[in-house]
């Protein structure tokens, strides 16, 4: 592709920090750079504890452990999301209850959530699609009414806010991704934000293979041992060193992405409006991080034809998720108990544009207009 969908951005300090980690002699987990990243995330979000992990999948799995789920418990989530959102709860024996999404933000439709709650419901997962927040006030109201846990899948949401609160810091737990396709990257990588202090100790234990190793290093016990269930969710120190360079420059990265997103929006909106296409909606109470820019066209046939034209001209546009409720595992492990028309329509008609720091946005726009007008 002349213009690939994604191109990882380097800020210039990542290799220096990796070399420093090696010089310090610790490349396994929870070295100086992991601690720097954790402290930064805690200061950024105001959470009680930020635990850096090897992936957002790992963070979601820890959150699922913390929900103390029993086989057959139900967790409400959108079908239009990545498989990790559901997998984390399925491996704990829970049943994903798939909800439809809104037609504007493509987030879980909060107006449909309460109808899906049963005596088995234990949690709601709010997936902040494209870095635009779900309607968190309503989801929190519902959760409080029914004593449910709220997990924010903020994989795409770092540096986005809802009513000036950072995404990931609003629910009981927040999960970030630092995969190379995200805004802030470390190749692979993630983080779990724990809002309440009372849940911190168990989160640390689960992350550390079910041991109280963190208490040992804080000299709270004279040896560490196996005390609970858990797994190995730590990142290597090389990953954290790379991430630290990105976090230091995170606000500048976000500003550069916003400039590209704003240019796309200003240059494309009139054209797509004339054709009846839709562009991203950002509610007034949300500030987004320019993670994604997309078009919603009329039909799957039209979307596929447009994708083919773009690729023939070297423009790396892509579609996105296959809805979980229609996937083989989704049918086996989850339930779709309501209409999924928005989810199915978006999955068939979305076209995502390349968006990365350093991209020639004018070339993307001109090529896309040529393809649309063909």
Short description:
The chain has 374 residues and is of the alpha/beta class.
Write the layout of secondary structure elements.
Layout: H1 14-24, H2 32-45, E1 49-53, H3 56-66, E2 74-78, H4 83-90, E3 95-99, H5 110-113, E4 121-127, H6 136-146, E5 149-153, E6 161-162, E7 165-166, E8 173-177, E9 190-194, H7 200-207, H8 213-217, H9 237-248, H10 250-275, E10 286-287, E11 294-296, H11 300-312, H12 328-333, E12 335-336, H13 341-349, E13 350-352, H14 361-373
Parallel strand pairs: 2-3, 2-4, 3-12, 4-5, 5-8
Antiparallel strand pairs: 1-9, 6-7, 6-10, 8-9, 11-13
Question: What would you say this structure looks like, in words?
Answer:
With about 375 residues, the protein is of the alpha/beta class. It folds into 2 domains: about 15-250, Aspartate Aminotransferase, domain 2, CATH 3.40.640.10; about 250-374, Aspartate Aminotransferase, domain 1 (Alpha-Beta Complex). About 40% of the residues lie in helices and about 15% in strands. The protein is built from 14 helices and 13 strands. The protein has helices at about 15-25, 30-45, 55-65, 85-90, 110-115, 135-145, 200-205, 215, 235-250, 250-275, 300-310, 330-335, 340-350, 360-374; strands at about 50-55, 75-80, 95-100, 120-125, 150-155, 160, 165, 175, 190-195, 285, 295, 335, 350. Strands 1-9-8-5-4-2-3-12 form an 8-stranded mixed β-sheet, with helices on both faces. A 3-stranded antiparallel β-sheet has the order 7-6-10, with no helix packed on it. β4 (about 120-125), α6 and β5 form a beta-alpha-beta unit. α1 (about 15-25) crosses α9 (about 235-250), α2 (about 30-45) packs across α9 (about 235-250) and α3 packs across α7 (about 200-205). The longest helix has 26 residues, at about 250-275. It is globular and about 70 Å long. It starts with 13 loop residues before the first helix and ends with a helix. The mean pLDDT is about 95.
């Amino acid at each position: 592709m002349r213009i690939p969908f994604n191109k990882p951005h380097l800020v210039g300090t990542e290799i220096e920090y990796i070399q420093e980690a090696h010089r310090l002699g610790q490349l396994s987990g929870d070295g100086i750079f992991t601690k720097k990243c954790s402290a930064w995330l805690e200061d950024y979000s105001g959470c009680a504890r930020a635990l850096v992990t090897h992936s957002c999948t790992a963070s979601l799995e820890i959150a699922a452990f913390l929900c103390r789920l029993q086989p057959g418990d139900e967790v409400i989530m959108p079908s239009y999301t990545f498989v990790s959102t559901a997998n984390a709860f399925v491996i704990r024996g829970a049943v994903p209850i798939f909800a439809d999404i809104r037609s504007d933000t493509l987030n879980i439709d909060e107006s449909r959530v309460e109808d899906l709650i049963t005596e088995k419901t234990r949690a709601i997962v709010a997936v902040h699609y494209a870095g635009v927040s779900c309607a968190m006030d309503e989801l929190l109201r519902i959760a409080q009414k029914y004593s449910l846990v709220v997990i924010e899948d903020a994989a795409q949401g770092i540096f986005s806010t809802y009513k000036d609160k950072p995404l990931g810091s609003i629910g009981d737990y927040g999960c970030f991704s630092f995969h190379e396709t995200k805004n802030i990257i470390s190749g692979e990588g993630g983080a779990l934000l724990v809002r309440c202090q009372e849940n911190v100790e168990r989160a640390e234990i689960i992350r550390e293979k079910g041991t109280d190793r963190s208490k040992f290093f804080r000299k709270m016990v004279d040896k560490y041992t196996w005390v609970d269930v858990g797994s190995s969710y730590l990142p290597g120190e090389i990953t954290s060193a790379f991430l630290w360079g990105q976090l230091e420059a995170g606000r500048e990265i976000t500003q550069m992405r916003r400039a590209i997103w704003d240019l796309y929006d200003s240059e494309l909106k009139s054209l797509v409006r004339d054709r009846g296409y839709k562009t991203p909606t950002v509610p007034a109470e949300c500030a987004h991080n320019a993670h994604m820019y997309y078009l919603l066209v009329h039909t799957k046939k039209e979307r596929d034809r447009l994708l083919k034209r773009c690729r023939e001209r070297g423009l790396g546009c892509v579609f996105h998720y296959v809805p979980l409720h229609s996937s083989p595992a989704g049918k086996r492990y989850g339930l779709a108990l309501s209409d999924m028309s928005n989810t199915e329509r978006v999955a068939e008609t979305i076209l995502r544009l390349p968006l990365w720091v350093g991209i020639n946005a004018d070339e993307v726009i001109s090529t896309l207009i040529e393809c649309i007008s063909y």
